[in-house]
């Protein structure tokens, strides 16, 4: 770990206060040009006594705007203090967790995983257009059938064709034979450039795609491609539960990663993270964004600096060992649940390094779906799976109540079923 460590409450408070001092202070400084200010004082009283010991909330009230991208070129000077904290967050993620070389990446805290994924696909589309004179209909998006719906959304917005790779029902692994057929037929249909999205934790199953499946087939067929990792779900789990993970920037074929802090890290909503290798993000420079100092390389435009500070707070409260411990606990609870299912001969999918268990729907009586807020794969009668996500608030006590309930419901069903 280069940057990431645990800090005391006092150290955290001092770091944030220093950052806020380096930002413009709308209460004291004469700042005339921005359509921005601190939060309306009539509504959000900045003298409220509880704010004194709550530096993240102080940042919300100060309301810094982190518009633009702060790992490259110049940035809006008014918010340089909290922008530096955003760079600290990105460094922990890119270098300490996803093993990039220092200063070899660009990135920002996006409104969410959806925006970060669209940013990635936009960036690669333009990369192929700028460097290869590609036409949009020569570019294809490739991702598995379990991929998050932000990828079809990106395909729709960016007018790109998308090919969906089937997965095996039980293992949720990519069907490599189908992938190869699909690449060959895409090539026949005039596709020359491929934007690949490989999942680190699918939303429904927590399945981890193997990026090498994509890499080896694309290279076998000598196809031009760029590879994005969607770690919105698994980015704060998998690298910690699987110390041998090689899905990171040490693999030269991986060029960008999406990570959601507002899922497993329990940060406030509005904290997706986008990180890419240097030399790529320039492809989405909007030259017309002339009023923004340093110009804008992001999809979203204005965004809250307080979100960066909130993520920083979580990372530096836990530190790397504290976070590993938290993931360990979730893993142990997930193991416990799987042992119960095994004992009951109930079939489920779980990646051994993830905290999601997805059970075949036929084992789950309907009454329990609503009672325990289980999430179905599809909200109609074709549903085949329910998922259970072992978060901080899901304790073994809750799981054991659920298991007891499941046992008695199944038992009652068996007794009332007609004898054969
Ligand atoms: C949740 C999720 C997203 C999108 O995230 P939002 O933060 O809801 O925009 C993208 N990919 C995966 C795999 C996800 O689980």
Automatic annotation (TrEMBL):
Keywords linked to the UniProt accession: Decarboxylase, Lyase, Pyridoxal phosphate
Ranges that cross the membrane: none
Requisite cofactors: pyridoxal 5'-phosphate
Gene3D superfamilies membership: Aspartate Aminotransferase, domain 1, Type I PLP-dependent aspartate aminotransferase-like (Major domain)
GO molecular function: carboxy-lyase activity; pyridoxal phosphate binding
Residues recorded with modification N6-(pyridoxal phosphate)lysine: 263
Pfam family, one: Pyridoxal_deC
One GO biological process term: carboxylic acid metabolic process
PANTHER family to which the protein is assigned, alphabetical: HISTIDINE DECARBOXYLASE (PTHR46101:SF18), PTHR46101
Protein family (similarity comment): Belongs to the group II decarboxylase family.
Protein name per UniProt: Pyridoxal-dependent decarboxylase-like protein
């Amino acid at each position: 770990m280069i940057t990431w460590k645990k800090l005391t409450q006092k150290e955290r408070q001092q770091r944030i206060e220093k950052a806020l001092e380096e930002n413009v202070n709308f209460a004291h400084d004469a700042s005339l040009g921005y359509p921005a200010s601190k939060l309306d004082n009539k509504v959000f009283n900045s003298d409220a006594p509880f704010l004194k010991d709550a530096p993240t909330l102080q940042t919300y009230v100060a309301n810094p705007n982190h518009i633009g991208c702060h790992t490259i070129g110049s940035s809006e000077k008014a918010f340089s203090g909290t922008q530096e904290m955003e760079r600290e967050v990105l460094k922990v993620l890119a270098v300490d967790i996803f093993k990039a070389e220092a200063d070899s990446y660009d990135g920002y805290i996006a409104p969410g995983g959806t925006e970060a994924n669209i940013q990635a696909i936009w960036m690669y589309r333009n990369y192929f257009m700028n460097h290869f004179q590609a036409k949009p209909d020569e570019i294809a998006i490739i991702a598995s059938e379990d991929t998050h719906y932000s990828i079809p959304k990106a395909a729709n917005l960016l007018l790109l064709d998308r090919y969906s790779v089937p997965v095996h029902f039980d293992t949720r692994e990519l069907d490599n034979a189908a992938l190869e057929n699909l690449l060959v037929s895409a090539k026949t249909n005039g596709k020359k450039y491929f934007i690949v999205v490989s999942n680190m934790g699918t939303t429904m199953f927590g399945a981890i795609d193997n990026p090498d499946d994509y890499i080896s087939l694309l290279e076998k067929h000598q196809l031009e491609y760029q590879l994005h990792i969607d770690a919105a779900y698994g980015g704060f789990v998998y690298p910690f539960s699987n110390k041998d993970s090689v899905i990171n920037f040490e693999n030269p074929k991986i060029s960008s990663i999406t990570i959601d802090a507002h899922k497993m890290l329990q940060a406030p909503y509005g904290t997706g993270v986008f990180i890419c290798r240097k030399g790529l993000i320039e492809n989405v420079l909007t030259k017309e964004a002339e009023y923004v100092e340093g110009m804008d390389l992001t999809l979203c435009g204005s965004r809250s600096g307080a979100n960066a500070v909130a993520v920083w707070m979580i990372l530096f409260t836990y530190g790397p060992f504290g976070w590993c411990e938290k993931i360990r606990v979730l893993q142990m609870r997930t193991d416990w649940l799987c042992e119960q299912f095994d004992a009951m001969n109930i079939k489920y999918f779980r990646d051994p390094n993830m905290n999601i268990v997805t059970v075949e729907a036929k084992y789950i009586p309907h009454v329990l779906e609503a009672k325990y807020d289980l999430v179905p794969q599809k909200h109609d009668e074709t549903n085949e799976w329910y998922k259970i996500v072992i978060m901080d608030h899901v304790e073994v006590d809750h799981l054991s109540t659920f298991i007891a309930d499941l046992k008695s419901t199944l038992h009652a069903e068996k007794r009332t079923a007609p004898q054969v």
